[in-house]
Amino acid sequence: MERMINQREDKLKELKESAARYQALLEKEQQEIQKVFTAVMEALRETEQVLIAPLEDGRRCLENEMDEKTQQIQKDILKYKEAIATLHHTKSEEDDVFFIQSYPAVPAEFTDDWTVSIDTEFNFGTMRNTKAALMAAIETHLEKLCTVEIRRIHSFSVNVTLDAETAHPHLQVSADGKEVRDTGESDVIPGSPQQFSLVGGVLGKPCITSGRAFWVVEVGNKVGWELGVMRDGANRKGKVSYKPSEGYWAIVLCGQKMYGAFEDPPVLLQLSSKPWKLGVFVDYEEAMVSFYDMEALSHIYSFTRCSFNGAIRPYFNPHPNKDGSNSSPLVICPVNQTDISV
């Protein structure tokens, strides 16, 4: 009985420690999210002030102009009232000839524009430019949430290996199924029914039919590659049409620095830095495939509303190595080496 009590006391201690760790994680994520949205709200307030400031300046100028013109008109009214009073007095005490001789010159009519106006130069053109700057600032702040996102999806890591039976004949798959490279060969070698015939691709295991899955691939300094997922029954023989409607959801690097997403039509991606490791995340129920730069901890691209229509598999293509410049392999990183502390 005492041993059972000790066991339960130890379990209670473990429970409290586990709860404390999760509580700390929740608080950390909450602080990170609140920090981001505090920055977003500050950007909104600053933009509001930028847009309102010219209006405030216009209001002050309008008030000043109104005061100046009001004072001038009131002075004129007072002057003419005094002139009328003097004429009445002269007419009642002097003869008509003297009255006519003392009659002042007829005052001129208003020649100035006594209306007030607003100087539109205060805010001309700033609305469009300010909006663009605001959206860029908000996008920059929201991108910081990516660290929280990557931390969460990392818990769905799966042990992906390459299926050598599907590899194009020119590809070399390592014995452990974690690396694939192009051999640089140019001769046509007949392949098995499972293999890619014209495109140098290879599929990974396991098949994904539900839930979420995440894996990381090291692309290193390669000048070309393709990564993503493919519907298990999609065409892999002859000329392949890379687009979601044909069962491919992948991104590509070609020509050393041109990144793209195989949408229909293809989308050119603008990356601020060259990724060394790429994270691939699949949410089957949400019909989404997302890609991340694991070094920069940033989001690269997401395919949404994907019509998987069955099992999907990880897809890899190291691209041809004709002149030796693309000899490096694509490497699936072990799960324990993809841990991040952010």
In short:
The chain has 342 residues and is of the alpha+beta class. It contains four helices and 14 strands.
Task: Tell me what the structure shows.
There is one protein chain. The chain has 342 residues and is an alpha+beta fold. It has two domains: 143 residues, no CATH class; 189 residues, Sandwich (Jelly Rolls), CATH 2.60.120. 37% of the residues lie in helices and 20% in strands. The protein has four helices and 14 strands. Strands 1-4-13-6-7-8-9 form a seven-stranded antiparallel sheet, with no helix packed on it. Strands 2-3-14-5-10-11-12 form a seven-stranded antiparallel sheet, with helices on one face. Strand 10 and strand 11 form a beta hairpin. Helix 1 runs antiparallel to helix 3. The longest helix is centred in the first third of the chain and has 92 residues. The chain starts with a helix and ends in a 10-residue tail after the last strand. 21% of the residues are buried. The model has no long low-confidence stretch (mean pLDDT 84).
Radius of gyration: 38 Å
Structural class: alpha+beta
CATH level 3 topology of the largest domain: Jelly Rolls
Mean pLDDT: 84
Series of H and E elements: HHHHEEEEEEEEEEEEEE
Which architecture of the largest domain per CATH?
Answer: Sandwich
For the report, how would you describe the main beta sheet? 7 strands, antiparallel
The residue ranges in which pLDDT falls below 50 over 5 or more consecutive positions are: none
Number of domains: 2
CATH class of the largest domain: Mainly Beta
Q: CATH superfamily assignment of the largest domain?
A: SPRY domain
By DSSP (H or I, 4+ residues per run), the number of helices equals: 4
Report the span from N to C terminus: 44 Å
Strand fraction? 15-25%
Tally of strands? 14
| DSSP helix fraction | 25-40%
